[in-house]
Amino acid sequence: MADTSVRVANAGGEQVHLVDTGRRDGPPLLIGSGLGGAWFDWDPTVELLRAEHRTVVYDRPGLGRSPAAHAPPSLRRDVQIMADLAKEIGAPVTVLAHSMGAFAAEALARLHPELLNGLVLVDPSYERDPCAGPRVAAALTPLTKTLGGALGVTRIARLGAPAARRLVLRFTSDRDDTVPAATVRDVYGRGTVIGTIAAEELAYREMAADLAALRDRRPFPDLPLVVLTALGDVRGPGRAQDWAEGHRRLAAMSPRGEQVELPGAKHMLQLDRPDAIAAAVAQVLH
After folding, report:
1. What is the torsional sign of CA 76, 128, 281, 19?
2. Closest to 81 in 3D by CA, of 53, 55, 43, 115
3. What is the pTM of this model?
4. pLDDT category of residue 14 using cuts at 50, 70 and 90
5. Residue limits of the AB hydrolase-1 domain (predicted)?
6. Domains and CATH numbers, the chain
């Protein structure tokens, strides 16, 4: 029987907002968003999966309805959050991760393969030659918090949230949000969320470089892996080809890896192509 609980859990020294729904006795799915994402981005996908699976969608610290983070964004922090959540909901789990969230998902597989049944990487971020450069993310995170707090206090974030969200979806999805405008305003009108998005932008290349270093130290385990590639967004023909090639490299990490290209689909596959994600989950679990 499918039911839903919404709570805040302690994981990796942080507090994270969880939406836990579906069959409690079904195969557990741990689901994470990309940069700036929120739990409701996954609603169409969860709707397809919840009858047969336990789906647990979480917001990284400071995003969605999660409280502000204690530690700056980092690969180490995000892997520990995922590891703790996997243990809480009943490892081994299948991880679904979108965009930048795939960095931590891959690192989790390399560091803690015993916690996983497999992975579905949903149009994941990929950097061919990651280079962190000067490491400034941790030092600048207090400034992003201050900026976010100022935008929250002045209500600028709340007033501009719906328009900013619509602009993002215009380029990354073919559908509107699945929640009321008031929910979008409540989430993206939080100064904490705006500050966290800025902090994750700063940390992006550092996390990519840390993952590249981890690849040299820890092999990818013999786990099922499906990489879904969106080919219909605004990257352009040349960049789309590079993106697809990067995803082929990701799929090749595992002897049981497969890449699935989705022509015409945009980056927010969890909104636009939940059917493809559900098919990938079935492939991983069977």
Report:
1. positive
2. 115
3. 0.94
4. very high
5. 34-280
6. 2-129+209-285 (3.40.50.1820)
